[in-house]
Amino acid sequence: MSQVPTYDPQAVEARWQVRWAADHVNEPQLDRPHRPFYNLMMFPYPSAEGLHVGNMFAFTGADIYGRFRRLQGHDVFEPIGFDAFGIHSENYALQVGTHPAKLIPKNIETFRRQLRRFGGMFDWRHELSTTDPGYYKWTQWIFVQLFKAGLAFRKKAAVNWCPKDMSVVANEQVINGFCERHPDTKVEQRFLEQWFFAITRYAERLLTNLDRLDWSESTRTLQRNWIGRSEGAELGFETPGGQKIAVFTTRPDTVFGATYLVLAPEHPLVEALTADEQRRAVNAYRREVQAKDIVSRKVGDRAKTGVFLGSYARNPATGEAIPIWIADYVLMEYGTGAIMAVPAHDKRDFEFATAFQLPIRAVVRGEGSGPLPIVTEDGVLVNSGEFDGLPCREGGRRIVGWLQSRGLATPQVQYRLHDWCISRQRYWGPPIPIIYCDRCGPVAVPERDLPVELPLIEDFRPDASGVSPLARHKEWYFAKCPQCGAQGRRETDVSDTFLDSAWYFLRYPSSEFHDRPWDEQRTRTWLPVSTYIGGNEHAVLHLLYSRFVTMALQELGLVHFDEPFPKLRAHGLIIKDGAKMSKSRGNVVIPDAYIQKWGADTFRMYLMFLGPFQEGGDFRETGIIGIRRFLDKVWQLAHEALTPGSALPPEVERKLHQTIRKVTVDTETLNYNTAIAAMMEYVNLVRERGAGSKHAIEPLLLMLAPYAPHVAEELWAALGHERSIFTATWPTYDERLAAAGDVEIVVQVNGKVRGRLVVSRGASEAQVVALAMQDEAVKKFVDGQPVRKTVYVQDRLLNLVL
RNA sequence: GCGACCGUGGCGGAACUGGUAGACGCGCAGGACUUAGGAUCCUGUGGGGCAACCCGUGGGGGUUCGAGUCCCUCCGGUCGCACCA
Fold this sequence. Notes:
Helices cover 36% and strands 19% of the residues. The protein is an alpha+beta fold. α1 (9-23) packs across α24 (709-718), α19 (600-609) crosses α20 (624-639) and α23 runs antiparallel to α24 (709-718). It is globular, with a radius of gyration of 33 Å. It starts with 8 loop residues before the first helix and ends with a strand. The model has no long low-confidence stretch (mean pLDDT 90). The chain binds one RNA strand through α7, β11, β15, α11 and α20.
């Protein structure tokens, strides 16, 4: 009997990583693949701290899936890259006093080393970094395409300004009024002229397409809520001065109960509608509101404040003159910036009317009719003229029709989604490729002049002026107008990082082409992405932006599909001691030391064994040993299984087929934890029966390969195979063999388990009942009483009801 | 406040369409082998009870022959949205 060598993960893993690279095993044929499979994972932001377990958890789960598909005969393309532009990187660079252009390559180097070490099946030929001019050339090119199509435009608007970042940020980057990157910093409101992408034009499509995407329901719900569609009508309230105040409402049925109007303090008509005697009060209020930051204005159940303008408008339904107020609970950015207040049927209006003693008129009678406000849409209309007695919904439709015929209403759909503000008054990003010319206006930089390179400047500090650092760089700032040749000025803002990542999946398969952003043939072959795996923290940001960009590109005829990620799976979060890992808590786990100690294979499997991949798990290092013991056992078994061996004992054979079935299903559905448990059960049985032959072990190694690729390769080779295990084929199972053998049937009396019987599969009810009645325990509980009813579940259970 | 998800041993977690609750692993206890062992192997391990049995999936109620799974209600937690008209 030969001596079994010791399992030394470091040696095994190093050996195979070198072999894989040398033999190009992870590099699929991109031009003529048989069964292309694009396995995408969300590329990391290369932080200075290096890859942490959260990243590794996500990448391992995605890599297992890719390797699984590979073994099932797909040509799997699994690229990786770096999302290295952005305020986050830049802030860190400022903090440590190193130029990001120096810092980022170092970080990327670290990430590369870690990503190679953990054994991902990456095709390194197609690595990309968003900071590479060869990449951001095309980010700028996309901007130009959208600009030419009228989808990128400049607009002066109230935008979110983060005083820490000293830049504007998108709505999606504001969390409860605080900056995404600075949870203690409230964003402010500034009126700036900024570049926007017209994502709202796609709101309806972004919403309806969700129905046909194979995404987890939670992610789709997040996007739906974010888009925030509401149906209603725009109603016109006329003033004696001839102005028409437009209000958006989702409850046109309650218009008879509108007893006053409220405009946002910033509403353009405020000036004109203010009566002289109210002017002082109105101006004071508007100043007060302006001084207040957005957060304290929007968040919380603040007491209502407001001021009467001193003028009136006509309720289009009742014809009554109703007072016009301004109040900060009405927001300029939603709807028309003005509302009709129906205090009887809206909580906010009710509070306001109560505070200022404004009239409250109920126009809906609900079931039971509780105290005001009655907000239900299930009631019937009252005090509404000819519409009395109609149910709310129908009444609403009829009222809109009636007002529409008088030019005072239009049915309308509103979205919560805003256009995407992409300007950033910062340095570390791709310059927006626009030149301002006094004669021609904003002109796109011609394609031949792209990229507009980000100049390497030492003084890249942002300031609070709202003007980018690039504006201080005069020789860069001035440029000739591409249209008329006159002296022009470059746009000095850079674009949002989320634009970089909104198209990276298009670049991967075509990354070697320098004359086109993506090759048409390659793109037709590989896209859309087969499976996308990533974190739910990007549910609205990255995923929504990517969908928008793809839709726009499709409409421009630049890609052949409108949804980039037909199948998306969100992984869970790894937590530590019940809490999210974060630098401030000091509980961030860095994988390197664990990989050093246990090896990448053990660590990969351990992470996957913590819990369901899509739910995450709690990291406790005590459990790692269990996985190591398992791999040790596999190692031992494989080395003892060098002979084909005789046929498997029936029990082992059955278990093998059951295991293949379970591991196949569980891997496909990303239930890696239970797949691993099934392999453990199988190994336990093989050992118990001493059945460790080649027959028993080879299928196990194939199933193990996605999870622990290095050790699987090593043992596969030890069993005499010359080619990589990833050129072999995933094992198949025989449903008949998996189901063979006897079964244990539970016998219940009145629903309580009283005995167990082993019978052959498919035994009839009569046979089982007869056997059960002979069982001592069962007999005791039946105790001679007549059995009123029997419930028999084939191969599972018999219940005797007395 | 609104919406979604969740609550199972000492711990992480299993349990297909309602059908043996606690798979698998950690930990723990006892034993074997050892100079030694934080290595390895074997046995046990939800709680109570000597046992027969009884009780157990956050609490209470319901449907059912049968409920962790379905329904109602309450409690607790996580996430998302939050004066969106």
